[in-house]
Structures are given as structure tokens and as C-alpha cells.
Design brief:
Helix content is 51%, strand content 15%. It is an alpha/beta fold and 228 residues long. It folds into 2 domains: 131 residues, P-loop containing nucleotide triphosphate hydrolases (Rossmann fold), CATH 3.40.50.300; 84 residues, Rossmann fold (3-Layer(aba) Sandwich), CATH 3.40.50.300. The strands form 2 sheets. A 5-stranded parallel sheet has the order 2-6-1-7-8. A 3-stranded antiparallel sheet has the order 3-4-5, with helices on one face. Strand 4 and strand 5 form a beta hairpin. Helix 2 crosses helix 4, helix 3 packs parallel to helix 5 and helix 7 packs across helix 8.
Length: 228
């Protein structure tokens, strides 16, 4: 990896605040923001559109290898089509949770993720960035929060997207996702040994952002300059 290129890896379970944080930190540092969850959601959306069974591992791997996924700022393009809004729907989220368990899909998208960061300093968020995608990242953050708080945040996000759901249902879905992510054989959700743990339960987005920028400044000279 080029010495001039900085990788900030942000991992953690659903609802911990990864997307909000990654976007804010990337803007502050002038880095490229890469939401890897959006990449898996795009593949899941394509599978749903083609009526591909979510347990058809061979076909899902094919889709992952054939998909043309582009991130343009906050927009997500699948095969040239802007699917930013559609991939946030709960049906796509649920499908993405299952698609991401497929080893072949993860291997295919691993190359996509690494390719997106070849020429740029990036803030990349996901569930295996610091442990698998970029184990050599200069900065690794693992965000977590109380399950109830994570469910609350997810419920608010769904409501904002016009998909109001009962808190109990959201909490159940969060728990199921956590179990799948932590138990999957390929790239499970784990905190990398050299990752800094930040519990966001009682912190504002601004406080989390400041905490991460302090870590970036401590680990990279680039971060010291950009974060001032």
C-alpha cells in the first residue's frame, strides 16, 4: 500500500452509527467515503429483481462478479442505474444480510472494495474492513452501541424512509443480523486486535466524530493536518 494513501477502516454492527460517522469523517479529512454495505445491498437488489433464490450461492456469486457497482458521492449505481433510494428499503436490507453470508459473494466483492481504494485515501465502513478487506489499514475503528439504542436508531431511519415498523420487530431483526454476521464462516464480524473500540450509545454524532479524528491524528501525520 502506498505510504501516501491513508485507509480509515470503520467496522461495527447495524445501528452503531457507522454510516453517519464515516461520511462526516471523510468530509473532514477530504477522503473518499466508501459504504461497503451499499455494495452488498446493490447485489441483493439485483438478485431480488431477477427472482434469484437467496440460498442459490452459485448464482449469487455470479451476480456479484458481474455487477457493475459505482459509488458517486452519496449515490449508488448498479449497472449504470441510480439505485440509492431503492437499496435502503427493508426488503433489500433483509436480503443483503443473507447475500452477505455467501463466501463467493464476499470474495468477489472484496476485490471490488479494494479496487475502489486503489488510488485514494478512504474512509471505508463495513463489518470486516479492518479484519479482512484492509488488515493493514493505518486507522481501525470498531463502533458499537447498546442493542436497544441500535434498534431505536434503525427504527428512526426506517421511519424517515417511509417504512414505519414496531420497535420489537426492528430489535428482532437487528439481533438476527448480529447473529448471522458474527457466526458466518467467511469474514465474520469481529473487532480487529488493533482497532479502537468506541461505544456510541451515549455519544452525539459530533462527539463520535471528534473521538475518531483524535485517533486519526494520533496515528497519521495526514490526519493531524486534515483534522485540525
Amino acid at each position: 500500500m502506498s505510504e501516501k494513501r491513508i485507509i480509515v477502516a470503520i467496522d461495527g454492527p447495524a445501528g452503531a452509527g457507522k454510516s453517519t460517522l464515516a461520511k462526516r469523517v471523510a468530509e473532514r479529512l477530504g477522503f473518499l467515503h466508501i459504504n461497503t454495505g451499499a455494495i452488498y445491498r446493490a447485489v441483493a437488489l439485483w438478485a431480488l429483481r431477477l427472482n434469484v433464490a437467496l440460498d442459490d450461492m452459485h448464482r449469487l456469486e455470479q451476480l456479484a462478479r458481474e455487477a457493475r457497482i459505482e459509488l458517486q458521492g452519496d449515490r449508488v449505481l448498479l449497472n449504470g442505474e441510480d439505485v440509492t433510494e431503492e437499496i435502503r428499503e427493508s426488503r433489500v436490507s433483509d436480503a443483503a444480510s443473507k447475500v452477505s453470508q455467501v463466501p463467493g459473494v464476499r470474495r468477489a466483492l472484496l476485490q471490488v472494495q479494494r479496487g475502489m481504494a486503489e488510488q485514494n485515501s478512504v474512509v471505508m465502513e463495513g463489518r470486516d474492513i479492518g479484519s479482512v478487506v484492509f488488515p493493514e489499514a493505518q486507522v481501525k475503528i470498531f463502533l458499537d452501541a447498546d442493542p436497544k439504542e441500535r434498534a431505536k436508531r434503525r427504527a428512526i431511519e426506517l421511519a424517515e424512509n417511509g417504512e414505519a415498523r414496531e420497535m420489537k420487530s426492528v430489535a428482532s431483526a437487528i439481533h438476527a443480523r448480529d447473529e448471522r454476521d458474527r457466526r458466518r464462516a467467511e469474514s465474520p464480524l469481529v473487532q480487529a486486535p488493533d482497532a479502537e473500540l468506541i461505544d456510541t450509545t451515549k455519544l452525539t454524532p459530533e462527539e463520535v466524530e471528534d473521538a475518531v479524528l483524535r485517533i486519526v491524528r494520533a496515528r497519521t501525520s495526514n490526519g493531524r493536518a486534515a483534522g485540525q
